[in-house]
Amino acid sequence: MYFPLVILSMAFLVALAGAPWYAVNHSRPIGDLPYCWGTWVAVTSLISAAGMITLALLGLVWKPATPLGGPEAVVLAGYNYLVGLGLWRRKRYGVVLHLAPVKGVAITSLMMLATKGQISVGMLWAAIYGVFPALEFIYFKKRWKYMSRDGKIAAAVEVVQ
Length: 161
What we know:
single chain; mainly alpha; 6 helices
């Protein structure tokens, strides 16, 4: 009974380790800037979406298998799919969808700090967690002008190829 689940888990781990590494090493630049991190985030978001769909299916078939199953997993999978697809195709909506939840966490932690007036361990972790999205914001801000808004690939990307 557990053998198919073990095989599925092993395949997922191989994809999780191999696909982003391959994609980053073969990513083409965007404009005159490298796009390795954007490719990494895109591929891991797509893999995460596949994992969430798997959790949703396992939640329907076998309830104790997942703490997260059903509608929550489907919503998260759809969101991660849109993030991954947007970043993979170098669209601006991918950046917005990727950075929006992270910005919400940072704003919430700052509001908690302002209202409570004291620092807790959770707020310190939220502040540390806020540094990484700030770096991602800078990364994608530099590449924003090369990303397309419509269905066409940005002209700068075509020039580099």
